[in-house]
Amino acid sequence: MASQTGELPLLGISRCLLGELVRYDGGHRQDAALVEALRARVRLVPVCPEVEAGLGVPREPMHFVNASGGRRLVTVDSGRDCTATLSRWCEVEARRWQSLGVRGAVLKARSPSCGLSVVVSDGSTTPGLFVEALARFAPGIVVENAENLADNASFEAFLARISGCRAAV
Questions:
Q1: I need a surface site. Which of 34, 99, 160, 162 has the fewest CB within 10 A?
Q2: 58 and 25 in contact (C-beta within 8 Å)?
Q3: What is the dihedral angle through the alpha carbons of 48, 112, 144, 134, rounded to the nearest 10 degrees?
């Protein structure tokens, strides 16, 4: 159901899932069915941490590596360390989402910023930098990767977790 003010709840969503050309290779990962189902029940807040932190499109692919200073997000070919740039942006945005009252987020799986579980070069896993920032600075926001919402039961359970959404008709 809508909030007492009649407004639909806010839900963050990866811009690539909306069909925006923001991925490292200039492409997208549009999920039209998911987006259509969400738009009927929430207000979407688009996000692409890499682009919004100034890393551009296209950009060199990045991956996590374990280094003496801890986990680092570095570009695959040149080895440029993007950890600080992206982490700073993610913290600011997570705090902003908290202040806006964003209730949940549907993010792109396996992304170095948005993945719930991203493989590190040594085979271990870690949350993406934005997922980590949300957990730290906006712990009430329920985060899910889009691919985990493919079936109706999972989709409805997610909406129930963010509460305040209209029941399916």
A1: 99
A2: yes
A3: -70
